Amino acid sequence: MSAPLYAEIGYFEPWWMQIAKALAIFLVVFNMVPMALLADRKLLGRFQHRYGPTRVGPFGLLQAVADIGKLLFKQQFVPRDSRKWLFIAAPIISMVTAAATLAIIPFSDTVDIFGVKTGLYGVDPSIGILFAFAFGGIAFYGLMLGGWSSNSKYSFLGSMRAAAQLISYEIAQGLSIIGVIMMVGSLSLVDIVTWQEQNVWLFIPQFVGWLVFLVAGFAETNRPPFDLAEGEAELVGGYFTEYSGGRFAAFFAAEYLNMVVVSLLFTTIFFGGWDVPFWDQPNWIEPIVVLAKMWVFIFFFIWVRATLPRLRYDQLMSFGWKILLPLATLNALVTAVLVVVLD
Amino acid sequence: MPYDPGDDVVVIHQPREGAASGTFRAFAATLKGLKMTFSRAVEGTTTIGYPEEKTPVYPRFRGRHKLHRFEDTGLEKCVGCSLCAAACPADCIRVVAAENTPENRVSAGERYAAVYEINLSRCIFCGYCEIACPFDAITLGHDYEMADYNRSDLIFTKEMLLAEPLERTPLRTPDE
Fold this sequence. Notes:
The structure holds 2 protein chains of 2 kinds. By secondary structure, chain A is mainly alpha-helical. Chain A has one domain. Chain A has helices at residues 6-9, 15-30, 32-47, 63-72, 84-100, 129-149, 153-176, 178-184, 189-198, 207-220, 232-235, 245-270, 286-307, 313-342; strands at 108-113, 116-120. Chain A starts with 5 loop residues before the first helix and ends with a helix. Chain B is of the alpha+beta class. Chain B has a domain at 65-162: Alpha-Beta Plaits (2-Layer Sandwich). Chain B contains 4 helices and 5 strands, in the order αβαββαββα. A 3-stranded antiparallel β-sheet of chain B has the order 2-3-5. Chain B has a two-stranded antiparallel sheet with strand order 1-4. At the A-B interface, α3 and α13 of A face α1 of B. Chain B: It is a peripheral membrane protein. Chain B: This is NADH-quinone oxidoreductase subunit I. Chain B: Its EC number is 7.1.1.-. Chain B: [4Fe-4S] cluster 1 binds at residues 78, 81, 84, 133. Chain B: It comes from Solirubrobacter deserti.
């Protein structure tokens, strides 16, 4: 499939619409980060028979704001022996790469806004998912440089673990969606969602692919049970041991933003994006549907965090290379054969 | 004689190791764990939100001391005998007695406590003062919220101990 040019799509977006869309998507989804942070603490409490934060605001709803505010007002300490500009750049890289993937998440198909036809997504590049993986690849520089430039052995160990873990699981994650790409015949996320709207949600035919993507998604976001990069028991805090104040907040927010983004990718690739089955939903409800499905996955992330203990390092590696990678490859192979045979 | 555990030994058969069965077991165990944590979440909380909700105390809970008066005459029960101070293992009670006069009758006995101080930062709430008192003039109440910013504020004088205490602590009902 060739890239859909503006001429082919038949409409052109004015510049103000692009800026408005970018702002709207960023502000809405970025506001999910403190909500995810609060949900994390509240739900973890519930899973452990306790309340979680209740002091700040009604029912503790402003806890995340208080957390972030406290971190922003703290001293931003830079270790004397650190590589200063890398030390400062690392959290920014983490943040920016996490936010960049938001651009390709489709919230709805093309709609009319004030007489202008526009798609409710930042961009719809023909490389689609590869865009997300490219930024996932850059994201690990944030962790890596953050740990290395701190000039501390714990940070260094944490970043080494993060590097090995992210690279190993990126392969399995990439292979797991090859089945999806073969079935849909396009890399574009909008095409993937439209295909699911017309046929079936892809987690049913691509069940193995979905499971592999799910597990690899946990590893990619450094969430428990794959948070070895953090490893607070043995590494103090992993790659962000030496960070404090706003830079620590940036790493922290990037972790939750990654969780939000991966949940959005799950929704888009395997759970039909904006589609509601057996109902011809109106356009305005579609972004809400996407966000609702995203919250289901965020709940699942927190649920798993409350359940599973952290893996040992050799378990992590053997799980990634000996189980997930062969499974993903097998899934791609079987899908390829079935796609050829059934067509 | 060598140690023979006999029939008490329970032999545990380790599950066979293998990639497929191992993966399946890990998957099943994960689902089991997820079910476990979720059922804990719907059970509700066992902790309580402390300053708003308080654990009710038992009737014989030993909290902050109270001094008593006779209800009919309004005279103090304490006669300044210092038996409580003698019984106190933490040595936190100070009593200075004075003579009652017809013009100034404070207690029902011959003497009364001119000074009665309890240093609550030393008190261990053993209740020996309560046992030692021949007139039931001092008892231990239910209040356990005595945190303060100054050590000197924790020395309770006679007026503070005689005052009707704020009932801040819920009492347990008999069936609790």
